[in-house]
Amino acid sequence: MDTRHDPVPEGLDTIVGLRRIVADSVRFAHNRQRLVVPFAGIEESVRLQRLLNEIEQTGQLTGPASYFPNGRQVTAETDLERLG
Q: Could you tell me if 11 and 80 are in contact, meaning their C-beta atoms sit under 8 angstroms apart?
């Protein structure tokens, strides 16, 4: 059953995206099924890591982030998109 084009429920984008990545990886590892978006090769991965290293070294640091400026708060609602 292919659910790639089904609408994603609001607020679950991250979970659905991760599930799709894992499903593609399992299909590739188990059945050698061709991926819709191919995995990055070693050259592309190294190039990306070098770019990320350069960004880190030249980035303007503003100090530590304050994730809880008003103190920690208990919330009844979970925003799964904040996990990413």
A: yes
**CA–CA separation, 68 vs 74, rounded Å?**
11
**In the numeric block, which tokens belong to residue 35?**
């991926």
Instruction: Name every residue whose Cβ is closer than 8 Å to that of residue 33 and which is 6 or more positions away in sequence.
Output: 27
Query: How many CB atoms lie under 10 A from the CB of residue 8?
Result: 13
Q: What is the pLDDT of residues 27-69, one digit of tens each?
A: 888 888 887 777 888 999 999 999 999 988 887 777 777 777 6
Question: How many Å apart are CA 38 and CA 59, to the nearest integer?
Answer: 30
> 């990306």: which residue's tokens?
48
Query: Residue 16, exposed/middle/buried by CB under 10 A (0-12, 13-18, 19+)?
Result: middle
